[in-house]
Design goal:
CATH class of the domain at 4-191 and 225-251 and 294-312: Alpha Beta
Radius of gyration: 20 Å
CATH architecture of the domain at 4-191 and 225-251 and 294-312: 3-Layer(aba) Sandwich
Bound molecules: nicotinamide-adenine-dinucleotide, thymidine-5'-diphosphate
Largest sheet: 7 strands, parallel
Shape: globular
CATH topology of the domain at 4-191 and 225-251 and 294-312: Rossmann fold
Number of helices: 12
Distance between the termini: 53 Å
CATH superfamily of the domain at 4-191 and 225-251 and 294-312: NAD(P)-binding Rossmann-like Domain
Order of helices and strands: EHEEHEHHEHEEHEEHEEHEHHHH
Structural class: alpha/beta
């Protein structure tokens, strides 16, 4: 195994922490630098089990700070970047779109500029790997799947900012020859996800007997992938993906929100010793999300055929594991939901 210094941005977030953990444990010869601003969504408690490993280092920094990014890349000889840092929650992007332009668009361009400057005369073997979402493709009707050639059609400020960042990454590859590649993944679920996204929010609310705010009729469809399978896909693409290419990652696992929520309620009734049907009574239909995409579903044939990746877990098993994790890690949940979280929750849901 070659020695490498690898920058992972957003490593204190949900997916980033799983990627950092996988790389730190699997590649002791890689020096992993985790750069994170530690926004409300970034939590070093997500990485307690790797923080003392000799090949791991944390740098607190903001990717929107262009000088800091240029300096960091000049000081450190990064061989590769896996870029996950972003504002990631659609509802927050509706309340505050500009924040998403700064973090997701300007932040990405700052990293591209820093990599380009640092790798100017010796970019061979380097890699800028940009992590993106299937939401850039917009919304599907009842039929069809997103492939790597589906046209971009974002509807939320979040997906518009991610689409823009994807375009910049490809433009830097095409214009400046920056060795870059992109992957677009479907909805992730699993441990360490901040409880503003559907699955951890609803687990938390069911446990606390709080209302379950279902947007619209609950008929929207998402394609759910276990976060550790996403991290495994990132590992495979990082090592075997072709520069300049795009890879779609997905679970072939479509659920309407309401069916998923009912399944979660049934599992939680069993785990909490409640009578069957108790938690479903918490379901409360609320005003729909503005611009709410109907359906996302990924065709990951390219990744499966070319690089041999397949999801490892069946959804029901993954969901059970995830619910167990949140039930067993109340202290983590308490830590991340203290402070500003209460204010966010009131503002987000009182107006619905
Ligand atoms: P997250 O919100 O849990 O984590 C984002 C991390 O980025 C946090 O640790 C945060 O502190 C950090 N960050 C935010 N702004 C920053 C800045 N200006 N400078 C430095 N760090 C900053 O998000 P996530 O769900 O782990 O998503 C990670 C990436 O994967 C994002 O790029 C997202 O678009 C993409 N993605 C997410 C999903 C999903 O289902 N969650 C699916 C596909 C793609
Ligand atoms: P979310 O986890 O925010 O992911 P995304 O919008 O990026 O797909 O939401 C998943 C689905 O659940 C989406 O269709 C919106 C819906 N949803 C609710 O019905 N209620 C909620 O409180 C939240 C957060 C989401």
């Amino acid at each position: 195994m070659m020695k490498k210094t690898l920058l992972i941005t957003g490593g204190a977030g949900f997916i980033g922490s799983h990627v950092v953990r996988l790389f730190v444990n699997k590649y002791p010869d890689y020096h992993i630098v985790n750069l994170d601003k530690l926004t409300y969504a970034g939590n070093l408690a997500n990485l307690k089990d790797v923080e003392d490993k000799p090949n791991y280092e944390f740098v607190k920094a903001d990717i929107v700070d262009s000088e800091a990014m240029l300096n960091l890349f000049q000081q450190r000889q990064f061989d590769a970047v896996i870029h996950l840092a972003a504002e990631s929650h659609v509802d927050r992007s509706i309340s505050n779109p500009t924040e998403f332009v700064f973090a997701n668009v300007i932040g990405t361009v700052n990293l591209l500029n820093a990599a380009r400057a640092a790798w100017k005369d010796h970019s061979e073997g380097k890699l800028f790997y940009h992590i993106s979402t299937d939401e850039v493709y917009g919304s599907l009707g009842e039929e069809g799947l997103f492939t790597e050639t589906t046209g971009y059609d974002p509807h939320s400020p979040y997906s518009a900012s991610k689409a823009s960042s994807d375009h910049f990454v490809r433009a830097y590859h095409d214009t400046f020859g920056l060795p870059a590649l992109v992957s677009n993944c479907s909805n992730n679920y699993g441990s360490f996800q901040f409880p503003e996204k559907l699955i951890p929010l609803f687990i938390n609310n069911i446990r606390n007997n709080k209302a379950l705010p279902v947007y619209g009729k609950g008929e929207n469809i998402r394609d759910w992938l276990w976060v550790e399978d996403h991290a495994r896909a990132i590992d495979v693409i990082f090592h075997q993906g072709k520069v300049g290419e795009t890879y779609n990652i997905g679970g072939h696992n479509e659920w309407t929100n309401i069916d998923l929520i009912k399944l979660m309620c049934a599992i939680m009734d069993r785990k909490l010793g409640r009578e069957a049907g108790t938690s479903e009574k918490l379901i409360s239909y609320v005003k729909d999300r503005a611009g709410h995409d109907l359906r996302y579903a990924i065709d990951s044939t390219k990744l499966q055929k070319e690089l041999g990746w397949v999801p490892s877990l069946q959804f029901e098993e993954g969901l059970e594991k995830t619910i167990d994790w949140y039930l067993e890690n109340e202290a983590w949940l308490h830590g991340v939901t203290s402070g500003d979280y209460q204010k966010y929750y009131e503002e987000q849901y009182q107006k619905r």
